[in-house]
Write a structure and sequence with these properties.
The protein is α/β, with parallel strands linked by helices. About 40% of the residues lie in helices and about 20% in strands. It is built from 23 helices and 30 strands. The strands form 6 sheets. The protein has a 7-stranded mixed beta sheet with strand order 9-8-11-10-12-13-14, with helices on both faces. Strands 20, 25, 26, 27, 28, 29 and 30 form a 7-stranded antiparallel beta sheet that branches. Strand 10, helix 5 (about 165-180) and strand 11 form a beta-alpha-beta unit. Helix 1 crosses helix 6 (about 200-205), helix 10 packs across helix 16 (about 435-455) and helix 14 (about 390-400) runs parallel beside helix 15 (about 415-425). The longest helix has 20 residues, at about 435-455. It is flat, with a radius of gyration of 31 Å.
Length: about 700
Amino acid sequence: MSVEKAVEVLDRIFNAKSIAVVGASSDPTKFGYMTLDSIIRGGYEGRIYPVNPRGGEILGLRAYQSLGEVPERPELVVIIVPAQYVPNVTREAAEKGAQGAVILSAGFREAGRADLEAEIQSISQTYGIRLIGPNIQGINYLPNKLCAMFFPVITTKGPMAIITQSGSATAALSEWAAYEGLGISAAINLGNQVDLCESDYIDFFSADMHTKVIALYLEGIRDGRQFLESAARAARQKPIAILKSGRTLTGQRAVSSHTGSLAGSHEVFSSACRQFGIISTNDIETLYDCAKALGTMREPRGNRLLSISSSGGMGTLAVDEAESLGLAVPSLPEEFVEELKGCDLSPLASLSNPLDLANISAEDFRKVALLADGFNIADIILLNFGDPVAGAPEMVEYLAGNIKASVAVSYLGGGEEEKVGRIKIQKGGVPVFPTPERAIRGIAAVVEYARYRENRTEQPREIVLHNRKRGGLEAEDRRFLLEPEGIEYLRSYQIPYPDHGLAHSEEEAVDIAGRLGYPVVLKVVSADVPHKTDVNGVAVGLEGGDQVAAHFKRIHEEVKRALTEASVEGVLVCRQAPEGLDVIVGALDDPVFGPTVMFGLGGIFTEVLGDVTFRIAPLERHDAEEMVREIRGYPLLAGVRGRQGYDTEQLTELLMSVSRMVIERPEIRELDLNPVRLFERGLMALDVRVIKGHSFDQEDEGGAPANRRS
């Protein structure tokens, strides 16, 4: 569906003025009772119509025996009946004129009943009723006081919209936010997403005036390109923090069993997050901390951090974590230190960064922070309370409104002073964290998001080729191309490859080598040998005709010995490239996001250290430049210990060319240029491996297509 339509649909659902609860129960142990009770206790001010075949009264409200008896057209229907009855209830809701339905019932695809899920999807498409769920804990939209979920009942309003594929994660994040005084704008449980999906919610909350940050927990993504389109639009307006499970193979199997979603490669997912301005996290606690910071901290001007603490230990913990996450911890200028000496601080104070006041005076924190801001020492000031600090909330509020630096608080003081103070500070709009390390992780997320916004153009990128069918080949038709065929792809995109020729005999190999000039390299050409070195199908550094002839014969013998049925098309004779630095450039058709470009250092760095990075095609130039800079081995490219660096500008051009190739040549399923040899000026692909085949459809493993309406 279009962005406008998704936002419009969800606006009607979340702001519904009348609700029918089908499956409402008078039994407190039933979800139908819990959900109706949550709607009432949440303070919903619209009209509520419980529906139960027995009729009567439930929680003080008249219960109707069917939807047909409800005296008006309910704008929203909440369904909590056994799965086999859900299609009929959904149809009744549509015929009654309801615009949306929230289906809490479980027992669909996740329980082996994909047929029931397909039936309610068909009803949605036929009648136009929009569906949330099924198999969810519910929804809570606080601006309308609409808490249609089993639990928890959260009424503390705040900046965070929570979207998760786990009821437990929904509850945990919501309750943490309420307990700390942060609050939420909404909590949405995704379930099976038979109609509306995570991308639609991102579109809605990116435009929602009550929401300042979106916190996502996902186990899989049904439509990767749609997700990126929504994220790219949202990131220009407000931040998104995400935790995606399924990072390990075991985790990916668990995800598939739990939701029927395809988890995909964690490395690709993390790189896609960086590319599109999404803050990726590794655990639910960090997800919460990052979302809290992103939703409350003023965007900093840079990444310089000053920690002011009452405890030396807390300050050290903060700067250790800060430097590990790429934050700058500047030294204090002498003139600032001299001014501090006149501020009547404790004689035990440590006047460096981290700055240890050795005191619990709120006034000392205030005057030091004001002085530091006047000297423009830091972009972020962390007020690091390692002890109870009387008057901390008032002092923090004053600083937040009177200094240029962004402010965050770590409070590890203990006692009632901390318990009360943390909530007051958080309600005042400054993020408070229980440890220095958690504070730094939140701060780093804000810095990363600010850097993303600064480096991007005003117009969000367009994600092309959404949901395309590529090539039309079946999986078993995947075909490894011979290297000469792969070289033709390179030639059409002006990617340099060594001068070469294809030899079918020893004499022809010697003749080609003589024309190219020595030294030369020989490589077997065979559709049965995708990895030449595995069968000793390569010879390098050959200096004369005798060597060429001998190794031509040896390569044929080695291949036949290793693979008796292998068909050898010939031997590629290439002019040997000069020495340089080897890297790997590649592409794959990711099952979630489609065409994806890879880059890393070659050889052992790729095979053992996994020093590679990814970006979703098509790349923008800054994407390619970031890929080059973000690998751990970048110092080798830039030049270390007085050595000349390599041609990273041409490397950037190569990444852009590969991006264009995999977008314009949809038959490419995998591409490896390994190695690509870099020189001080220029580069050259020394080997090319191409696999052709079909792309992944946007379907789950059970074959249920993602429902994307136009």
